Predict the 3D structure of the following.
Amino acid sequence: MGMRERISMLTPAYKEAAMRSLALLALSLVAAIAFAQPNVRLRGAISAFDGKALAVKDAGGKSFDILLVDKTEIVFAQPIALGEIKSGDFLGVTSTRRADGALTAYEVRRFPKPLNPGHRPFDGRDDQTMTNATVAAIVQSTSGRELTLTYDGGSQKIVVPENASISTLVPGERSQLVPGAAVNLTMNEKREALRIQVSPTAVKPPK
């Protein structure tokens, strides 16, 4: 016997109480589903900022309005020299993959602490990768410095040419959110920014 059939056999008072219980259960499920919605990541360039609302345009030209709140974390990609990278540093390296599988970095970011370690495709593309890992070794090669990066379950050798973008992530501030600056941010379902990484300019893969 189904729930509706059981309710039909109850007295009016019991029916009303049962229906209220079902309604509350349905609302609880809806709230749980909404709460479980994952955060969204957005990359693009700032088009405007009024101190509270941030307008960002993604690579496809679509505009988004994001709200900064008290808990929004801002980090700034401060440019540094490749020579400042040393063994033990935790890096996020975006690379292009050649036909032979060799990796060449075009953006290297030093993180203050490990974040999402691993090696994976970047933007869903097979010819670009993102490696978040610890520097195990640095050697000089004919094409640049070769980094050996290790993470749980694997390692990667990546050549860093002289023209690669090198930066270290430091605490940022709202004054750095200026039009034209590149951002990589995470926001919730209310479009409130949880974390914003801002760089002076966007870094694009070599053609």
Q: What stands out?
A: The first helix runs from residue 3 to 8. The mean pLDDT is 87.
